[in-house]
Amino acid sequence: MGWFSGIFGTNRAHATGGNLWIGADPEHLLPVDDPEGLGGYQVAIDKLIRETAPKWIYLRSGDPEDLSMVRKALEYLSYIGGEIAVVEQMPDDEVAAIFGVDVPLYRAAVANPDGNAGEYAG
Measured between alpha carbons, how far is 13 from 21 in angstroms, rounded to an integer? Predict the structure, then answer.
């Protein structure tokens, strides 16, 4: 950390390990400091969508044993619709179930986000 943390602050989401990380690229995820799930994750998702219009939204937990914030983020994405989430820490069938679609449809949307898989979603 050193003296830079005194200037720029510490990354509490990384330090706690249990918070949500989001991004349009799995190699460049940003932390969401919302350990209680009080809505900061919704603001971060909305900002990501507004500023980058990503084809995929990658979600990751800093603590693979606690995916509660990832599930909340998936539920929010399912609620707002129109976005494709990728969560490497969860099986496709669980992600698909949260979105209310079957696994082949979810996989088709991930494989081709510009395709017509969304037309078949309820």
Answer: 8
